[in-house]
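Entry 0007
Protein: (S)-2-hydroxy-acid oxidase
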Amino acid sequence: ANDSGLASYVAGQIDRTLSWKDVKWLQTITTMPILVKGVITAEDTRLAIQAGAAGIIVSNHGARQLDYVPATIMALEEVVKAAQGRVPVFLDGGVRRGTD
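Output (structure tokens):
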């Protein structure tokens, strides 16, 4: 099952070396606001803000093939509560599941 074409494709799309330090680094090379996309949990919201994100984009990255990924609308309330008004929160994607 792990050797499926989809699994290989998805694995190839993820850079496992990325960390919250990269958000801080980006701030050193631009004056533009840094928005973090792909946030769907309160913990990641807090970490993004601590790293200096100017905003949050609630997104499951168009997980059309991954129907078990939470719909963005289901994650929105948790993320907004965790942000506590410190940064703007934007919604990306469908409202029921990845296939919307």
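Curator remark: The beta strands are 35-39, 55-58, 89-91. Residues 72-83 form the longest helix (12 residues).
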